[in-house]
Amino acid sequence: MGVSSTTPHLLRAARGEVVDRPPVWMMRQAGRYMKAYRDLREKYPSFRDRSEIPEVAIEVSLQPWRAFQPDGVILFSDIVTPLPGLGIEMDIAEGKGPVIFSPIRTQEQIDNLRPLEPEESVPFIKTILQALRQEVGNKSTVLGFVGAPWTLAAYAVEGKGSKTYSVIKNMAFSDPTTLHQLLAKLADSIAVYMRYQIDCGAQVVQMFDSWAGQLSPQDYDIFALPYQQRVFQQVKQTHPDTPLILLVSGSAGVLERMAISGADVVTVDWAVDMAEARARLGKHVKVQGNLDPGVLFGSKQFIRDRILDTVRKAGNWGHILNLGHGVLPETPEENVAFFFETAKQLDAAGVRG
Ligand code: CP3
């Protein structure tokens, strides 16, 4: 990066500028694999406290920043955080993930949902994002994130994480009109929430459609893609310069569809070879990824080889180096440190063809 540049590395790459090495961050980089996080969790056992008390959420977001200086610092929060603001009460249970108190199953419940008013229901987001921007200055890029309509609907309807998605698929395949109303309402509130995060300081925002990979491509086209597009279109209307990233877990079968979502950057997981993903997506689509998080259980030499391999395959434009999904809780911190050090030492001459 040129010394005169004041725009951080990740933001420049996400905007399509050529940079001297791919910027690097890690999904779930704040969390359980860090001792500092586990210690703080003892003091604040409730996830909602950790993510909604600004001082605590700021501290957790900054733990990986202080330890590894990643090119991206992500807000510590959860995809279900805005749901109570719509009238969907929830908690995040230790070891289980989100739990919805009254799962959404009826038309009447959908009619009763409120549009999100961020200043009323998630004001802590502003305090957290402003503090993160203040702290990292232009040395790193602050990322916000949201859940996508299909994935949040899956939590709202199922009431918790699911292996089969039987309740929401029952609704999708026997009463689609009702589900479409829920998806539309979620999309409009998610767009409001994304804009709010940007207004509060997020420089890049990632949308997690984690469970959209559970849909067949034909159903992805009906229940996931149109609502991803609805969110991205609404946000682009008012915030055209903020890069937006899309993630779908298990996305190998829908990569080309992700490219038409309106996202600027498509996350690729490790089930797809990065060179093949590039070929399938076309040269104009920016990518993020895609190391197997399990690589961080390998030797240092192995980690290094896989970083180099991914960076070579991704080419020298439009790549944000990341894992293909979140860092695993059992990962040795030392290997996370090595991953970041190695990635940040890559130079254009040595690695890229
Ligand atoms: O990347 C980051 O550092 C930001 C932190 C972050 C969390 N959740 C914190 C969290 C992010 C980006 C999320 C997004 C999220 N939450 C997703 C999309 C990402 C993905 O994995 O596809 C999903 C599906 C959720 C819902 C959710 N919340 C799950 C599945 C879990 C984990 C359950 C478990 O214990 O394994 C949660 C809880 C949660 N959110 C944790 C963290 C760090 C773990 C609980 C804890 O640390 O106490």
Automatic annotation (TrEMBL):
Binding site for substrate: R28, Q29, A30, G31, R32, D78, Y155, S210, H325
Coiled-coil residues: none
Catalytic activity annotation: uroporphyrinogen III + 4 H(+) = coproporphyrinogen III + 4 CO2
Main location: cytoplasm
Location in or out of the cell: Cytoplasm
Enzyme class: lyase
Site keyed Transition state stabilizer: positions: D78
Keyword Cytoplasm attributed: yes
EC number: 4.1.1.37
Domain of life: Bacteria
PROSITE patterns for the chain: UROD_1, UROD_2
Keywords: Cytoplasm, Decarboxylase, Lyase, Porphyrin biosynthesis
Any one Gene Ontology BP term: protoporphyrinogen IX biosynthetic process
Similarity remark: Belongs to the uroporphyrinogen decarboxylase family.
Annotated PANTHER family: METHYLTETRAHYDROFOLATE:HOMOCYSTEINE METHYLTRANSFERASE RELATED (PTHR21091), UROPORPHYRINOGEN DECARBOXYLASE (PTHR21091:SF169)
Subunit-structure text: Homodimer.
Entry function: Catalyzes the decarboxylation of four acetate groups of uroporphyrinogen-III to yield coproporphyrinogen-III.
Protein's name according to its UniProt entry: Uroporphyrinogen decarboxylase
